[in-house]
Amino acid sequence: MARRQPSVTFILGRSIFENISLTQEMIHSINKPARGGNVVLKLDMAKAYDSVGWNLLHHVLSAFGCFEHICHLQTMYFFAMILSGNEWNSKSKASVRAIARTLEIYETWFGQKVNKDKSSIIFSKHITAARKRSLLRITGFYEETLPFKYVGVPIICGRLKLVHLDEVVGKIQERIDGWKARLLSNGARLLLIKHVLGSIPIHLLSILQVPKSVIVSLNRCFGNFFWGMKEGKPKKHWRAWDGRCKPVQEGEAGIRNIAETQKELHMKFAWKILTENSQWSRFFKAKYVK
Q1: Rounded Cα–Cα distance for residues 177 and 158 (Å)
Q2: DSSP secondary structure string, 181-244?
Q3: Residue 202: which residues within 8 A CB-CB, separation 6 or more?
Q4: Same domain flag for 116 and 183
Q5: In this structure, is residue 274 part of a structural domain?
Q6: 42 plus 139 within the same structural domain
Q7: Are residues 125 and 210 in the same domain?
Q8: How many domains does the chain have?
Q9: pLDDT in tens, the chain (290 residues)
Q10: Which of 23, 83, 92, 231 has the fewest CB atoms within 10 Å, measured from its CB?
Q11: Is 59 a member of any domain?
């Protein structure tokens, strides 16, 4: 018997970033031209779901009419399923009903529930309004629009914009406002920038190509906090922020350079793709490595 595959979250040496990157790639492809359009089902199952053997679930999904490639994706994307437009035909409603029946059987067997209030469908722009209404009625889910958040990361289709990351910039500014910088020494501010503020955007830098405008906004927040404020206005910055980000050995503050950190994290991402042989790395090799 094949060995059970546990959830990615609980595999030693793996990261939740693998799930995020796969989800982002799936959403990037949702609007590709295809007969009938593409659909993504985002299911909210009980958190204990990952304790169930994948082999048994694969057998159940296959037995009740689930497409083979959907079963494969299910093991990679937790329980996010994509229905390719190439599969849409006169039997598309029957296919969705088969998935709905499979979920009902799963609920009966394992005592788990699909939370329909939190489960959703993401439609391609090529899906007709009539088909949308039909699928929403069959599943009982609601329609999700892009972008949406997945473990704190904005999942988008298209180019990442400043507005998509307003929340992280706002979160950093809220932290700064709460510290009342006028009561802190320069040394205390430097420590907070290095070990608290500088860590907040790391998970986004690991996955996304953060626009330069966002990096400029973050550096401005850090600089204003470090040099202080007077009568609600930033004090004079006596040193360019890029200079402050140079190593301590060169007489500077040794603050993490956000742009350079993003490059390093992306290189780590590429190295994992090239050196590992997991489902995750094989997916990206097949798509991007020629």
Answers
A1: 33
A2: GGGS-HHHHHHHHHHTGGGTTHHHHHHS---HHHHHHHHHHHHHHHH-EETTEEPP-SS-HHHH
A3: 261, 265
A4: no
A5: no
A6: yes
A7: no
A8: 2
A9: 344 444 444 455 567 788 888 889 888 888 887 777 788 888 887 654 445 555 665 666 566 555 444 444 443 333 445 555 455 443 466 777 777 787 888 778 777 778 888 888 899 888 889 888 988 888 889 999 989 888 888 999 888 888 888 888 899 999 998 887 668 888 899 999 999 999 999 988 988 999 999 999 999 999 999 988 887 788 888 888 888 888 888 878 888 899 999 999 999 999 999 998 888 899 999 888 87
A10: 231
A11: yes
- Selection from 202, 167, 196 nearest residue 179 by Cα: 196
Contact status, residue 142 vs residue 164, Cβ threshold 8 Å: no
The residues with which 122 forms a beta bridge, in sequence order, are 40
The identity of residue 252, as a single letter, is E
**88 in Cβ contact with 35 (< 8 Å):** yes
For residues 106 and 112, what is the distance between their CA atoms, to the nearest angstrom? 7
Q: Would you say 238 and 186 are in contact if contact means Cβ atoms under 8 Å apart?
A: no
Q: Distance between CA atoms of 238 and 247, rounded to whole angstroms?
A: 18
User: Do 149 and 200 contact (CB within 8 A), yes or no?
Assistant: no
